[in-house]
Fold:
Amino acid sequence: MAESGPEEEELAHAEVLELFQEGLARLVQDPLLCDLPVQGTVEEINSQIALEYGQAMTVRVCKADEEVMPVVVVQNASVLDLKKAIQRYVQLKQEREGGRQHISWTYVWRTYHLSFAGEKMTDDKKKLREYGIRNRDEVCFIKKLRK
Structure:
C-alpha cells in the first residue's frame, strides 16, 4: 500500500474547503441567513440565529465618517461586550476588504466614548439595557475631552 504524499493531503484539504464553501453559500441563501456574507464565519451564523430567536440584538454603531456598523450582541450584553463586538466587526470587515491595517483599540477606547441618547457610556460593566438600549438603537463614538 502506497503512502499518500503531502500533495494529496493538500488537494484533499482544498477539496474539503471548496465543498464547505459551496455548502456555506447554499446555507446563506436561506431567508434567515441572507444578510450574511458568503464567506460568513460560524460566529456570524450563530449571531444571526440568536437574533432570530430574540436572544441577541443589533446595535447600530455610528462612526465619525457617518458609516453605520450593525453590530450583534446578546440581549444582556455589557458595554465591554459591545466594544469587543465592534472590534470583531471591524477586524472581519478589514479581512474581507483585503486591508489589514493595525488598529490600536487601546488608543481608540482611551480617546473615544460610546454614547447613547446623549449619555456617555463610561462604565464597561454596565449592561446596555441599563442605558435603555434596545434592538436597532444607535450608539455613536464621541471624542473624550481632556481633563
